[in-house]
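Page 37, continued from 36.
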């Protein structure tokens, strides 16, 4: 290599953000940076070429996972068959492909491979969440049917709930997790509960479509350290804001990318981010959401 760059310089040179560069490295193994004695990553000319090729392919509409595969196998500086695809990237690609079938065994096998390759936090953050986002986008574009989406999500949810056995046991802080009335998709909440449980929390899970009166009764009965309501479509639940605000003081947070406005109107905390990052932040702070 003729030049070595830190990640900030690589970002400035290529126009790709440092967060995206780190994601490409972590999820797909696109780069193999050298390291200084202080463990800082140093990127060379071939890495610059790979970033530019990734950006070109993605700009042309190629999904990030497929773009990474092409760069690794055929990309700049590759000889012959090219570098071996990182195991997690291969497992992720198998899962994405299986999600487009009605083959439960194939989906189960792909999930097994992901969990054998990565710890649960990495699997949630770097594989399962992106896979769900991708099939949601495919459904929205019409390239995936509602039936395929429901089938695939159902198989993944079933596996994750199998990992949740016993998550209400222990002596740590308790989290009460639920979706508001009318919200039937709770798989993100399941992953959040698993991430919290890995950090010592006890989980009481009410799941999808939970009546507000039952949620309040459970909150009073168990007095959890935190109650979290999740929805992917908070714009459809704006009417809940006043009811939540009028309830007796309780440690409540709303989760989901669209929750900001409703959380502000209800006077409670908005949890923004992936399930693992939010679980880590809550565990580190252990601050009541209304303080």
């Amino acid at each position: 290599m003729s030049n070595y760059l830190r990640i900030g310089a690589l970002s400035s040179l290529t126009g790709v953000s440092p967060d995206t560069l780190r994601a490409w490295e972590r999820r797909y193994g696109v780069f193999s940076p050298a390291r200084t004695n202080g463990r800082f990553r140093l990127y060379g000319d071939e890495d610059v070429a790979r970033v530019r090729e990734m950006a070109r392919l993605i700009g042309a509409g190629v999904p990030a996972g497929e773009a990474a595969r092409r760069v690794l196998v055929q990309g700049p500086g590759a000889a012959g068959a090219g570098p071996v695809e990182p195991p997690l990237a291969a497992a992720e690609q198998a899962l994405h492909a299986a999600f487009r079938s009605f083959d439960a065994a194939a989906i189960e096998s792909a999930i097994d491979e992901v969990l054998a390759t990565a710890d649960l936090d990495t699997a949630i953050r770097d594989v399962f969440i992106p896979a769900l986002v991708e099939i949601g986008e495919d459904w929205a574009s019409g390239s995936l049917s509602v039936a395929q989406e429901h089938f695939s999500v159902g198989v993944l949810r079933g596996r994750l709930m199998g990992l949740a056995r016993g998550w209400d046991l222990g002596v740590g802080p308790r989290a009460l997790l639920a979706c508001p009335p009318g919200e039937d998709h709770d798989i993100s909440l399941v992953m959040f509960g698993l991430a919290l449980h890995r950090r010592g929390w006890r989980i009481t899970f009410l799941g999808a479509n939970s009546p507000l009166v039952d949620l309040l009764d459970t909150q009073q009965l168990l007095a959890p350290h935190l109650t979290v309501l999740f929805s992917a479509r908070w714009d459809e639940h704006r009417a809940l804001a006043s009811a939540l605000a009028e309830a007796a003081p309780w440690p409540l947070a709303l989760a989901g990318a669209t929750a900001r406005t409703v959380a502000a109107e209800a006077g409670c905390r908005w949890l923004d981010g992936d399930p693992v990052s939010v679980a880590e932040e809550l565990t580190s702070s252990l601050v009541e959401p209304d303080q």
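The beta strands are 34-35, 41-42, 174-178, 202-207, 226-230, 252-255, 269-271. Flag for discussion at group meeting. Confidence is low (pLDDT under 50) at residues 77-85, 287-291.
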